[in-house]
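Per-record layout

source: Marinomonas vulgaris
name: Peptidyl-prolyl cis-trans isomerase
length: 143
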Amino acid sequence: MSVITAASRVTLHFELSLEDGQIVDSTFSQAPASFVFGDGSLLPAFESALLGMTEGQEGSYVMAPENAFGAHNENNVQRMPRSQFSMDLEEGMVVSFADVSKNELPGVIANIGEKEVLVDFNHPLAGRSLTFRVQVIAIEDAA
């Protein structure tokens, strides 16, 4: 029987859900996902949870924020002049910004004031505990 190791290619169904049960992402109603262990497709803690699982096995793991998308960092919340925005803004909308290296950086509009806009550059799932549910479909040697 195949067992997931750090040298595996894994095909699985997965589901990520919030503390209240709201599903964030799932492959259970579509084609399963495949990844090579260590390729960066999954967060390290999610990969670690899979180690030792076998084909057909199912599991459910609660991931604390520090093992998922990190803690919410107040330093990633920025105040910007309202005049910098030439569009209609709504709280919760995602706006694309460029960082100093001209890389795209998404920010969530957290609050709109008369003169300032609060933009949150944390990952939308930062600070949240997530439930990671998996069903292993196939395991192969990645080499």
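summary: The mean pLDDT is 94. The longest helix spans residues 44-50.
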